[in-house]
Amino acid sequence: MKSQDLHDRHRSALPRWVTTYYEQPLHPVSATGRTIIDAHGRPHLDFFAGILTNSLGYGVAEFRRALDRQLDTGIAHTSTLYLIDAQVRLAERLAEQSGIDDAVVFFVNSGTEANDTALLAATCHTGGNHVIALTDGYHGRSLTSTAVSGLPGWQPSPYSPFHVTFASNGRTSPDGEEHPPEDPVADLEARLAGLAPPAALIVEPVQGLGGFHTPPTALLQQYARIAAQHGAVLICDEVQTAWGRTGRAWWGHQLHQLKPDVITFAKGIANGLPLGGVIARREILDSVPGKSISTFGGNPLACTAALATLDHILDHGLQRNAEKTGQILLAELLRLSGAHPHLRNPRGQGLMLAVDIADPHTGRPDSGAAVAHVEACRANGLLIGIGGRHGSTLRIAPPLTVTEEEVAEAARILAAAAQHCAPTSASA
């Protein structure tokens, strides 16, 4: 099938807001290691990992064998009304890894569902619907999760089940200005005065769609202190930061020495199979009244995939690899930014790396130039992402199995794209 025909059918059959990258969208047909082959037979290094989901990359033998063993039983899915061995084993493992006292785990299908569940539990536990969230945060696409997402363009509905107070992420003010308040903590305390006590504080340890910005540790610790004083539940959204991707830590919240009451996760846990969940103190999750199930969350195949993924990450030292290869790539981004004035603020934690694209004269974000960079990288065989408040940030997040040789090739392609897309006046 021709990719153009598939693109036409995509636009006809799916909603307009289901966006795709590239002027001519990529049509993957096979993959191995960190390389995707498109419908034209062209290879591409995947340095976005299905939006930080394919933790191990593609064609991993041990992962495939684990899935085959489960499929050989004939049971890919069974209701959570029955006992599921892989689900219980995974829950026990995650509860132990979480560091949360008396932890229990509830499985769902995605990060959106995980954050929905965490917010539901927080409101039931505290009896309030006031939530503190961070500017430039992103927590999902449902009514509840978009309500607490602080990114313009990702809040499609004006309606909200919560009263939300946005706190500065240390980079952007609550009213959308490009600079934070002089004292973000005092600003938050002033805006909380006279309001109902918050039920929850929800934070990403490294903001994903917000451009891989790491909020200052001291700031997050102060926000956590304020939340605790009000009896609010601290929710750490680890959908993108968990499982060693940040290199220095297994959980992203460990970068900030936070002690969450609730951890949400999804994406990379099952190397591409849909699985998400919530880890929390029992008293918080048990505060949800009545009964509930998750039809697909915690199914045998997805939980088997998660167990195999976690085993592979630990057995092959992939957290250390994320730190090592991430440092190499960050050094390359720093070098490129020194040579090209339109590349600004290279940053990252482990294999969550980013660089902003800006007009070299005004310093203003340049989303058009960012798109051009992504297109140029794809033309030369490298897949990267885009994000940030203005859609002007390049996001780079390969599988945790990436090699130093692949990092060197990606750096070469990024350098060629930077040269190709550099404004003429800036490079003169």
From TrEMBL:
InterPro entries named among the record's database cross-references: Aminotrans_3, PyrdxlP-dep_Trfase, PyrdxlP-dep_Trfase_major, PyrdxlP-dep_Trfase_small
GO molecular function: transaminase activity
Alphabetic keyword roster: Aminotransferase, Pyridoxal phosphate, Transferase
Superkingdom of origin: Bacteria
One of the Pfam families matching this protein, by short name: Aminotran_3
Cofactor requirements of the protein: pyridoxal 5'-phosphate
EC number: 2.6.1.44
Enzyme class, UniProt record, top EC level: transferase
Keyword Hydrolase: no
SUPFAM superfamilies given in the database record: PLP-dependent transferases
Entries under Gene3D superfamilies matching the protein: Aspartate Aminotransferase, domain 1, Type I PLP-dependent aspartate aminotransferase-like (Major domain)
Subunit structure: Homotetramer.
Alphabetized PANTHER family for the sequence: ALANINE--GLYOXYLATE AMINOTRANSFERASE 2, MITOCHONDRIAL (PTHR45688:SF3), PTHR45688
Family to which this protein belongs: Belongs to the class-III pyridoxal-phosphate-dependent aminotransferase family.
Protein's name according to its UniProt entry: alanine--glyoxylate transaminase
Source organism: Streptomyces pakalii
